[in-house]
Amino acid sequence: MSANTSFLEVRGLTRRFGGLTAVNNVDLDLAEGEFLSIIGPNGAGKTTLFNLMTGHDDPDGGTVTFMGRDITRLSPERLAALGIARTFQHGRVFANLSVMDNVLVGAHVRFKAVRPAWPFPLNLLGPVAEVALALIRPPSVVAEEQRMREEALKILSRFGDRLLPRLDNPTYSLSYANRRRVEIGRALALGPKLLLLDEPTAGMNQTETAEMQALIGDLKKSGLTILLIEHKLDMVMQLSDRVVVMDNGTVIANGKPAEVRNDPAVIEAYLGHRRADRPEASVPEAAQ
Amino acid sequence: MSSWIDYTINGIIIGNIYALLAVGLALIFGVSRLINFAHGSVYVVGAYAGFVAVTQLGTPLPLTIVIVVAVGALLGLGIERFGLRPLQGYAHIAPLLATIGLSFVLDQLVQLTFSPDPRALPSELLERRFQVGSGTIGALDILIAAVGIGSAALLYYFLRFTRLGWAIRATAQDRDAAQQMGVDVNAVNRAVFAIASALGAVSGLLVGMYYNYIDPAMSFQATLKGVVAQVVGGVGNVPGAIAGSMLLGIVESYGIALFGTSYRNLFAFILLVLVLVLRPNGLFASRRQTPPEPMTGTFIAPSKPIQISYPVLIGIAVVMALLPLVLPNPYVLQTLTNAWLYGLLGLSLTLIAGTVGLISLGHAALLAIGGYASALLSLDLGMPVGASILLAGVIAAAIGTILVFPSFRLRGHYFSIATLAIGEIVSLVILNWESVTRGPIGVAGIPPLSIFGFELDTDRSIYWFALAVLVILAALQFRLLGSHLGRTLRAMRDDDIAARSYGIGLDRYKALAFSVGSFAAGVSGGITSHLYSYINHETFNSQLSILALTIVILGGMGNVTGAILGSVLLVGLPEVFRVAAEYRVLIYGLVLLLLVRFRPQGLLGTI
Amino acid sequence: MLAHRRLVLTAAALLALPFAPAGAQTAPAKGEPIYLGVSGPLTGPNAQYGAQWKQGFDLALDEINGAGGIKGRPLAYIFEDTQSDPRQSVAVAQKFVADKRIVAELGDFASPASMAASPIYQRAKLVQFGFTNSHPDFTKGGDYMWSNSVSQADEQPLSAAFAVKRLGMKRIAVLHLNTDWGRTSKDIFVKAAKEYGAEVVATEGYLPDEKDFRSTIVRVRDAKPDGIMLISYYSDAALIARQLQQAGLKLPTVAASSVYSPKLIELGGDAVEGLFTASRYFPDDPRPQVRNFVDKFKAKYGKEPDAFNAYAYDTMILMAQVMRESGIDRQAIHDGLAKVKDVPSVIFGKATFDPKTRRVSGAVSVDLVVKGGKFTIYQGGAVVH
Ligand SMILES: Nc1ncnc2c1ncn2[C@@H]1O[C@H](COP(=O)(O)OP(=O)(O)OP(=O)(O)O)[C@@H](O)[C@H]1O
Ligand SMILES: [Mg+2]
């Protein structure tokens, strides 16, 4: 495997909820520029793994290293500053903010007005400075805001005509699929080094899924490192450099899409499991 | 040593009384996620229903209890039907305001019917007393304990083993899921309000008999203590509420034992804040877990705010500035001056509660800090008045933010309750810290308003000063909200988890918003103290916190113009209703209820 | 009885409409009424006191207007509800100041509300007559702030003398309302008691809405007092007395004159039996002005008057006297207050202002004890030996 060029390195990660071990001693490596998909039946622990990697949940054991730096238990806001962006399985847009504002919040960590680069004792005045800059708005701040808006427009234009006509609409008024798009736009605005997508096409119809797949393919081409959780196997097989299969909190297979597809253990544990439990492949509820 | 036994017994006895209130509040919170501010009013109505039964009809105790239970249950059904059901689907805050309005109306109705005078509520049978320790316990103490524990046991059985109980628990855990599974959530709500209110009414009766004393003004204190007790025990947890009540009673009693009577509530509220910060789910709850991700995404009630363009706003400000020249009526000017000062308070809370989503129930404390700071700076240190007001804003921002900081990690109603407690703590510290604040005697002879040495000694000049400060701070708030910061703060309110994912440190931005907001409140308190020339710990009482919240909800959460409009209305309406004399607070409460009913997102809409 | 009570209140409410003169019933006095502004609580937590004021005022007005009013014109008042809240009392102050018909103002009830309005009355040169404001700084607000409230500097030494010299207490525990009034009273009482040679072994300040005193009583008991002093209103005094009884702490107890109300006995029951207090007057008092007040009050309202009824009654009588002597405009009343001498008073016997402090001193004091469910004059001597 590509352990020597490890961009993201997960070792022995474990998370228990009461008696249930949602993530059990998981190891994972990801090289820069790689596209890795995580698949597995409902309740396998995929989202929990994302939560552990992005600081939303604390592991009971194990480490996460990102670009040579131990990031275990760092807060989500620190991780965002390091260039890790994620989307959420059920969608978490800022409902009362406009489409444009949602995307601009994604760029939060890149605003200089947020964190003026002042030396030590003065940096304690950070919040005061931030308020002052927001009120006074010197030309540099205005220019920065303008720049970010243009960039946000560029990001939003990736979704064709889906979002551009609705720039000023609050996101609660958007369709479900459009909210998912806004979330991805927001993640891109962070200028991420690593992008984690949790079921970006859940609840989308075939056309919408195809569109999304094309977009993610473009992102991959641009060299972005991506971790994808997805139930739609066709999409996974077409996009991924490598696929990791989880079941009951553990990694049961790891390899090229073709290898994984034909791994009998995967067919047994993943597809068999699914067939036994639930015939529907895209039921979002967790199956315990 | 033997005294400690007495203190403990006394703590348990009073805890017993709190438990009666806390159980009902816990039940309602558990199912409806609502702090029912009308609960204390139900308690008052129960006490007076019992009073009528005992003194007019001469009913024996068991029959009295039956009557009171019936009255309470009916009242509960009424509150649910008219106050809360129509507001389903709106932001949490609308039902909260509805319960506040209901409590105004109920208290006033009782007061108008029975006069504000306290009444004796004798309990013939229950004068028997038993020696315990060096004091005595009465039959009524035992009855109260029996009712408290008995009703909790009954509730436990009901919740565990009946179909409706099962539905109630399911609804408490996940309202939407329960509804999907075919639970009639409305029926559950009705049942819960009926049961909780019946219990509340019986507690009014028993406590009234216990003290042989009832008056219509006892509702607020009852709500307050009940809320504290149930939060200490774990919000929505019925057995926890009883344990929390006992603990509260004992802590109060030990507080008196150690430091004296005037420290009693200080200890109660410090206990509350500690429990909230250290064990946010209550002392008796299991380990805190990350909330599961919402299935449907996160939404706060969507609303289309009414847009008022800047030229129009500027036009209104100009008209208001010219008003004293056209209409030199000092009464109107004074009322508007008050409205401007409360408008500052509204600006403060609409930023903190509306834009950031931190529903503060202790905002009057910021007025008090600002008021005392400016009064003492100018009086004791001889600072010029204008500068002292400015500094008072800064001091209120600093102290307020430091006090509230540990509570920032609390979510939703937990934060509200923490601020309620912090507000009470500030007021009690002011009362007890005599060397600085002069205790209950208060600060007299505060110098009049002046800027740059010019004394503002006409009604007009004071009006203009207050208006100017309001316009400046409102303009700054508009500018802030229009910047990246406004976006950041609102994002944090809409979804704090997603906000963190994008690098928004919650503590940092909550503190930042809280300081900015507190500044306006501190300035308002500072100006007020110079206007009044005398303040004491009662000048900025907790009723003002409720008023502040009402202003903000009425105007539309986060809406700067709305906060000012809300202030003008809520300060102005009681003046307009003066013609109604004793009935004016009743009318005010009814108008408030109608406004919440038909415009739950606020007059100008949530931003 | 309840329905009847409501009717009375409704009628009173109608009479308090801004343009409807109160007490302008079948008065022989004719012509344009003279108005006093009253700022006080009719709603909110202190509403009971505003209601008591009204009874006192109305009784006095019946008398004044029945006897020809002021120079033939009827006297009336406009009562504006402030809930004793400073925000509203300042607005009401402006309203009164602007209303040229109003020649003087009475109230407000609590110090924060009264004193917040003082600068406005002072600026407008309208007399603010704070007849329940015993806060030592109230009349320092300016030369238009006057008060005939019994100064605590007068009253508390009398209470101390009663407790120490007459009843023989040597170790006193003081329970006081932790308000500006209670606190001022306590300080003066403690000082006087010490001067008379007693020791104050405990002082406990409690908040006005407190109902549970059990633990406070344990603290008091542990200080081993031989007598208790209550600086309370009747409602809390009744609660404390009941809980003292329940705790089995049988000690002679003196209460400040503010507990003097039939309600004390109604609420306290047999627990207030034997309670000592003092009063400015008492029902069987032979003084003519007291006889007149008590009898007429009973006839009009069917119950015994209490302290707040008496303050309000006295105040209205006093204002009428000032206007008769000095004239019916704002300045005349201000000047007249300094000149008026020996106005018959329930509280003071005869009231005369000290023009420097703008207060009245020398309140009448009668030592009382509750006996057989009634206030009676205390005839006995020491109870602590
Ligand atoms: N906060 C929590 N508390 C308790 N259990 C949890 C929590 N979060 C997740 N779980 C449990 O952990 C297991 C893994 O859940 P997770 O959401 O990670 O699965 P998943 O692989 O993302 O499934 P899906 O495909 O349905 O999204 C499930 O059994 C789930 O019920
Ligand atoms: Mg998942």
Relevant CATH superfamily of the largest domain in chain C: Response regulator
Provide the CATH top-level class of the largest domain in chain C.
Alpha Beta
Supply the number of helical segments of chain C. Answer: 12
Mean pLDDT of chain C: 87
Mean pLDDT of chain B: 87
Binned strand content of chain C? 15-25%
Ions, cofactors and other ligands present here are: adenosine-5'-triphosphate, magnesium ion
State the helicity of chain C in percent bands.
Answer: 40-55%
In total, the number of strands of chain C is: 16
Shape of chain B: globular
Global morphology of chain C? globular
Strand order across the largest sheet of chain B: 1-2
What proportion strand of chain B? under 5%
Question: What tags apply to this protein structure?
Answer:
heterotrimer; B: 607 residues; mainly alpha; two-stranded antiparallel sheet; two-stranded antiparallel ribbon; 24 helices; 4 strands; globular; C: 385 residues; alpha/beta; Rossmann fold; 2 domains; seven-stranded mixed β-sheet; five-stranded parallel β-sheet; 16 strands; 43% helix; disordered N terminus; binds adenosine-5'-triphosphate; binds magnesium ion
Question: What is this entry, summarized?
Answer:
The complex is a heterotrimer of chains A (288), B (607) and C (385). Chain A is an alpha/beta fold and 288 residues long.
How is the topology of this model organized?
The complex is a heterotrimer of chains A (288), B (607) and C (385).
Chain A: E1 6-17, E2 20-31, E3 35-39, H1 46-53, E4 61-66, E5 69-70, H2 76-82, E6 84-86, H3 99-106, H4 120-123, H5 126-136, H6 139-157, H7 176-189, E7 194-198, H8 206-221, E8 225-229, H9 233-239, E9 242-247, E10 250-255, H10 257-262, H11 264-277
Helix pairs in contact in A: 3-7, 6-7
Chain B: H1 2-32, H2 39-57, H3 61-84, H4 93-114, E1 129-132, E2 135-138, H5 139-161, H6 163-173, H7 175-180, H8 185-211, H9 219-233, H10 238-259, H11 264-278, H12 310-326, H13 330-355, H14 364-380, H15 385-404, H16 412-432, H17 434-437, E3 450-451, E4 454-455, H18 459-481, H19 484-494, H20 496-501, H21 506-532, H22 542-555, H23 560-576, H24 584-598
Antiparallel strand pairs in B: 1-2, 3-4
Chain C: H1 2-15, E1 34-40, H2 47-66, E2 75-81, H3 86-98, E3 102-107, H4 111-124, E4 128-129, E5 145-146, H5 152-166, E6 171-177, H6 180-195, E7 199-206, H7 214-222, E8 227-231, H8 234-246, E9 253-255, H9 262-268, E10 276-279, H10 288-301, H11 307-326, H12 330-339, E11 343-345, E12 349-351, E13 353-354, E14 359-360, E15 366-371, E16 374-377
Parallel strand pairs in C: 1-2, 1-3, 3-4, 4-5, 6-7, 6-8, 8-9, 9-10
Antiparallel strand pairs in C: 10-15, 11-12, 13-14, 15-16
Helix pairs in contact in C: 2-11, 3-4, 5-6, 8-9, 11-12
The complex binds adenosine-5'-triphosphate and magnesium ion (MG).
